[in-house]
């Protein structure tokens, strides 16, 4: 209902989703992929290795920077099992580039009667562009483009528990469900409960943006973050203020552990420049606090990105600083 897909299946993570799709549709057959999309996600998820594991024969087309639709169509044979597109979710190729859009790939797949699988990875259900951030392809957009199967993580931009969703045409999803691997890759009750709660919020996007911690942090307006900075500064005791130089500074929030490469989001940070101890020592003491407070260090200043601090945690930080300064 949220994605607009005919059918869907939940597995352990997106790696499992990709493996299952390849194993079902391209085992012993060829899977065509652009050379620019043979990505490594990390944690030893490397597209060529996953393809090898699934028994799909990798057919690379195009070049690192340019791939055309004709590269795909020329590579199609009677052994072709699927056309695979992988979202370059953790790196960027810029400059003299050419990629084939999903719609064009879908048209080619339809014409030649070959399923198109899109490994979207990040799993955005709300385009960050709506909040002034860079565009990220959404699941709904992929379904609308007519893709046969799209796979994505439920713990990246979706903001849910670890999991992977396979969504798309019923005909193909049903085929995946029948694969014996599906039982090995299926999720437990706890994941289903958490994922259901996460997805229910998306029925009302405004609610999702307010209540989902990932979305709330990612889409928090700068004014709210600045307000939080002011609140923290006003709560720090004069004794602590006498021992460190405290100010609000601009900065960039790094999003998504690599899911949005090079797309820092402007933020406001609290800069702490202690006088008696160095920044490393202050950061260590903050981590030793109960609860631990993790900060960044830049140019011998301790920085707290207030985007990732809840309003009800501001007091905790003020108290921690007071304790550190009085010890
Ligand atoms: C993150 C990602 C994966 C792996 O997903 P997990 O849910 O971490 O297993 C696979 N492909 C792409 C494109 C990704 O971004």
TrEMBL record:
Its cofactor is pyridoxal 5'-phosphate. GO terms for biological process: conversion of seryl-tRNAsec to selenocys-tRNAsec; selenocysteine incorporation. The modification N6-(pyridoxal phosphate)lysine is found at residue 156. Keywords: Cytoplasm, Protein biosynthesis, Pyridoxal phosphate, Selenium, Transferase. Pathway: Aminoacyl-tRNA biosynthesis; selenocysteinyl-tRNA(Sec) biosynthesis; selenocysteinyl-tRNA(Sec) from L-seryl-tRNA(Sec) (bacterial route): step 1/1. It catalyses: L-seryl-tRNA(Sec) + selenophosphate + H(+) = L-selenocysteinyl-tRNA(Sec) + phosphate. Pfam families: SelA (PF03841). One of its GO terms (molecular function) is L-seryl-tRNA(Sec) selenium transferase activity. Its main location: cytoplasm. Signal peptide: none annotated. It comes from the Bacteria. Its EC number is 2.9.1.1. GO terms for cellular component: cytoplasm. It is found in: Cytoplasm. Belongs to the SelA family. Converts seryl-tRNA(Sec) to selenocysteinyl-tRNA(Sec) required for selenoprotein biosynthesis. This is L-seryl-tRNA(Sec) selenium transferase. It comes from Candidatus Brocadia fulgida. The gene is selA.
């Amino acid at each position: 209902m949220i994605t607009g897909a005919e059918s869907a299946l939940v597995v352990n993570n997106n790696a499992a989703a990709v493996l299952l799709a390849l194993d079902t549709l391209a085992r012993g057959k060829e899977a065509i992929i652009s050379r620019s999309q043979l990505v490594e996600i990390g944690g030893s998820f490397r597209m060529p290795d996953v393809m090898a594991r699934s028994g799909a024969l990798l057919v690379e087309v195009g070049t690192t920077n340019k791939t055309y639709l004709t590269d795909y169509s020329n590579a199609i044979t009677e052994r072709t099992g699927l056309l695979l597109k992988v979202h370059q979710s953790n790196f960027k190729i810029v400059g003299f580039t050419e990629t084939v859009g999903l719609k064009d790939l879908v048209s080619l797949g339809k014409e030649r009667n070959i399923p198109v699988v899109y490994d979207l990875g990040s799993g955005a259900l709300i385009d960050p562009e709506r909040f002034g951030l860079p565009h990220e392809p959404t699941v709904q957009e992929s379904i609308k483009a007519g893709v046969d199967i799209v796979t994505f993580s439920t713990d990246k931009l979706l903001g849910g528990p670890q999991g992977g969703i396979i969504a798309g045409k019923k005909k193909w999803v049903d085929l995946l469900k029948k694969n014996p691997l599906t039982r090995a890759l299926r999720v437990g009750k706890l994941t289903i409960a958490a994922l259901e709660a996460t997805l229910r919020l998306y029925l009302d996007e405004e609610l999702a943006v307010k209540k989902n911690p990932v979305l709330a942090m990612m889409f928090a307006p700068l004014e709210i973050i600045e307000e939080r900075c002011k609140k923290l500064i006003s709560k720090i005791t004069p004794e602590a203020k006498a021992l460190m130089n405290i100010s609000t500074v601009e900065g960039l929030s790094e999003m998504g552990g690599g899911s949005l490469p090079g797309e820092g989001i402007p933020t406001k940070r609290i800069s702490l420049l202690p006088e008696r101890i160095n920044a490393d020592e202050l950061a260590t003491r903050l981590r030793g606090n109960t609860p631990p407070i993790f900060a960044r260090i830049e140019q011998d200043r301790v920085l707290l990105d207030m985007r990732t601090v809840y309003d009800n945690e501001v007091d905790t930080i003020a108290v921690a600083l007071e304790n550190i300064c009085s010890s």
